[in-house]
């Protein structure tokens, strides 16, 4: 290492050569023997200049001495960062000769500096601040060492310069390493908090004592009130402002040994700590910006000294210890309060007597296992206090530390009564229908399953109840009225069954009743009778009364099913049969009923696809003059042939189609196909043949029938007079205003309107009087009984009289014998159809019939 002293270093901004030149000039002037007065002045000037030179030299010497006396490396830099000077400590620290440093850029000593490193330095210096930075300096041999550089600005001979003092941090780093080693090795927990009580760091002992995962995330969870409860040494809960750390921040002084308890909810663990909190102040701060919390685990000491007597009450936790040798059970005051027992409870059998039998056995087994295996246990137990109130506790126990014979078992009891009651409330809510307060679907399925699989209790019946006309009330008056009706219906059913059945709401307006058949085999039928009787009175909703009845299906186990869903499904099948036949009654399930249900589903499933599969066709039954036998029109009759089901009866599949709603599409197809055929006959030279087509009541409700008829007639270029629409009496009462409008529009087109099977249905003469129809069709049901059955003859006479009085035509259906034809003529009926004249004919056969009639005519 080279060292240069102050004499080898010219002062910054010094110009010694100029002073020496001036002195030499004065000496030369004196040597020329000037006049005395001038010589005296020259000598005075020379002395003054020499004195000034000496003072400058003295100043430089002091500067050099002070400069080199500084123990830290000091560098003088130009505004551009060139080293102008360096002190003796810098030469030693950087292990370089002075001449290798002076005149070089500062990057020689700090090779890691960025290109614009002087910009922030000058920004700070121009503000009058000192600039501080930690960097790594490089020695002459290439080795590095950390420094903290303090830079300040000054002027030298009018030029801005920088003085930079570098303090070696190697010693501090070694001190910090020793500090970290100390923090990691001591058995006391140490946590550093900021003013927001966030955990900035913690040593391994803190993690171990608190039983938390590493990192701020795990430690910060100790501040979560959902996870931890913090109490004082007496078990009283502490607010956040009362925590020792918070008090340390507030007071700005050390808070010495303070005992606190931490209860960890998820693990049910109680931890006692002795903690000291020390504030840390930043430079120039009057408030602590950090606090070190140092603590020790005193849980064992606390347990041994007080036996959990001060377990915090907010968590409702008490302590207990069972000394098997002394046959003595110790309970803290909180533990006695939880189990509701007086001070004379002294041994484990006394505590066991408080528990229900199943839990008593569970605790006895847990204690035996703990003694034998030196294990721990945790149980949830239910018992009864001395005052008769029930309690729920979570009891935790383990063998005392260091107890080789397991002579003492200690633990905690926590009052969990409120949680269990809340769970029971949720369980009840999950099983209860919120509107009616009775069991819901899930609950009744569960209970029925338990009953059906309990030996000796499997003979049960299910009553499936559906309210008739509920939808009418709900749609007419709104959901609030519907809810009122359901609540009242529930009350009526519950009153009817009393304690002999279990009632549940299964769906919207559907209820289930489960009853036991062991002692009374006909119990289900008796309940069904009482329920239907309960619906005999109308329901009062506001100022109006509504007749709402109940249709009930009954299924028995195990005969009708050995699974809840199967039994309910069969009861549902019986209910639909009851609704189809009578309503306001009950029907018992039978295998035959199930087969009909299966057949119905088969038909409806295939019926839905029949139109797309081109499975329908029309046949045409002639309508003839009963006197002459001449064909005057025809009726288009629907036929369906399915590859799996074969040829289906029209009355069967049409009823199903009306039930499913498929009749709308099928009816549209039939109307269009009939008009297409009439157009074809006209094109073949047969003229216009009037065709009658049946129209379902659903076509009036589900579509704009008049618009569809107009569209089809226009499509084939036909007048309305070629079309006759036949409809049943149900159309008359479904929606009278809409029906009147539709009939009026059809009549304007020239379409004939006829009531089919008149007299079978509602016989709504009031509507009949108001509707603009053309005729009636005598039902085959009455025609087949004439002339021998006087009642049928009387009905036919009445229908004919009505028709004559209203100016309507009459067509008789099902004419099969000559006596029937003659009787009808005697009654004034001149048009009929039936097997006496022809079956339903394919279009080609009907066409040949028309051609033969023309040839013969």
UniProtKB/TrEMBL annotation:
The record ties this protein, via Pfam families, to: EAL (PF00563), GGDEF (PF00990), PAS_8 (PF13188), PAS_9 (PF13426)
Recorded hits in InterPro entries, A to Z, give: Biofilm_reg_signaling (IPR052155), EAL_dom (IPR001633), EAL_sf (IPR035919), GGDEF_dom (IPR000160), Nucleotide_cyclase (IPR029787), PAC (IPR001610), PAS (IPR000014), PAS-assoc_C (IPR000700)
* CDD domains cross-referenced by the UniProt entry: EAL, GGDEF, PAS
User: What range(s) does the PAS domain occupy?
Assistant: 59-128, 175-213
Domain PAC positions: 377-428
Q: Tell me the ranges covered by the GGDEF domain, including all copies.
A: 458-591
Which intervals hold domain EAL? Answer: 600-854
For this protein, the record's SMART domains field holds:
EAL (SM00052), GGDEF (SM00267), PAC (SM00086), PAS (SM00091)
Give the transmembrane region(s). Answer: none
Stored NCBIfam families? GGDEF (TIGR00254), sensory_box (TIGR00229)
Protein name (record): EAL domain-containing protein
